[in-house]
Amino acid sequence: MNVTSTLKSAVGHYQRATDKLEQFLEPWFLGLMARFVFVAVLFGYYYNSFATKVGEGVVGFFQIRPSAYYQIALPAVEAAGGNVSAVSFFPWGLMVIAGTYGEFILPILIVLGLFGRLAALGMIVFILVQTLVDITVHMVDAATIGALFDRFPDSLIMDQRLLWIFPLLYLFVKGPGLLSVDALLARRFQAMPSARQVQA
Fold first, then answer.
1. Phi and psi dihedrals of 54, rounded to 5?
2. Domain residues of the chain, as ranges?
3. Cis peptide before 107 (omega within 30 of 0)
4. How much of the chain, in percent, has pLDDT values that exceed 90?
């Protein structure tokens, strides 16, 4: 057996082994890992951020604090002379409500894998808007913003948030996988007889 045929055989074995591994892992592993990364890195961050924007207890859950307006709609608050109650509902008040409860609802949907693609897309948009607000409203400095393609991997905006978005992009494109509420619902609805089957 010459070197070429040996190498061809080795490549063939390698390809078959990796194909089998991919077939085993692809339906469930990466979707689960993307959600695990989100929970491990971002769930606590967004839950804590949400908690700073609402009151305490069950009743407080439905009460938006002034701090939410300062975090999300600072230009409107400043234009109203610091009087949060004078801030118009549209668009600013609506943005504050959507931003506040988005921080609570979207992470939970991602963890459960419920409406996974839609929740991931919503979270991507949320992070992009959050980044825009940090740069243009809160005026974070250049070191905090950082830059891509440099030798420093630790900037709080460009580097970290690009890494935040990647598992969400996977979930948006591929879905949350077999170990998710989406997959459970899909199996349940597939098992249910259609209206035609019932009539027959």
1. -125, 170
2. 28-177
3. no
4. 89
